[in-house]
Q: What sequence folds into this?
């Protein structure tokens, strides 16, 4: 089980990067839905074979604009993918992206600073525990606070 105090950041591509074309996001919403494709086709007033030709990557039929509302209604568990794509494509201004990125950094920064302080404290404690008496010949390792006794350097 993971430590609840540990910061976890998951980087995932944005909706537009993940689904470059509208057809891609429609296909993803259909294929990841918990509903059977035949049920979705029926809700869209299409036969299963026609629906398959619409959503298939090399399908010879395109989704008509008038069919989109019925499709979104039928995909109640995954329609957010399509809506997120539309918002990202036309409503997401560059300034909004910067604000969201700043908010992520502001939320993560306290945990990162705490982690740096913990690591620094641990490093200083380890250096104090491995420090050798002054009478021994000591060679400095690269980096402050770390020493290696001369007899162990071979």
A:
């Amino acid at each position: 089980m993971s430590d609840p105090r540990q910061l976890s950041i998951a980087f995932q591509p944005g909706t537009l990067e993940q689904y470059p074309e509208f057809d891609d996001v429609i296909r993803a919403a259909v294929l990841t839905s918990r509903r059977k494709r035949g049920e979705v086709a029926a809700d869209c007033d299409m036969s299963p074979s026609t629906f398959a030709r619409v959503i298939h990557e090399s399908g010879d039929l395109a989704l008509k604009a008038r069919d989109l509302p019925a499709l979104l209604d039928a995909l109640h568990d995954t329609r957010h993918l399509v809506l997120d794509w539309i918002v990202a494509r036309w409503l997401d201004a560059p300034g909004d992206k910067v604000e969201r990125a700043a908010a992520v950094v502001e939320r993560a920064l306290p945990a990162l600073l705490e982690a740096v302080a913990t690591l620094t404290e641990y490093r200083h404690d380890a250096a104090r525990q491995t420090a050798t008496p002054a009478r021994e010949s000591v060679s400095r390792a690269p980096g402050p606070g770390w020493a290696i006794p001369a007899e162990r350097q071979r």
Summary: Residues 94-130 form the longest helix (37 residues). The longest strand covers residues 138-140.
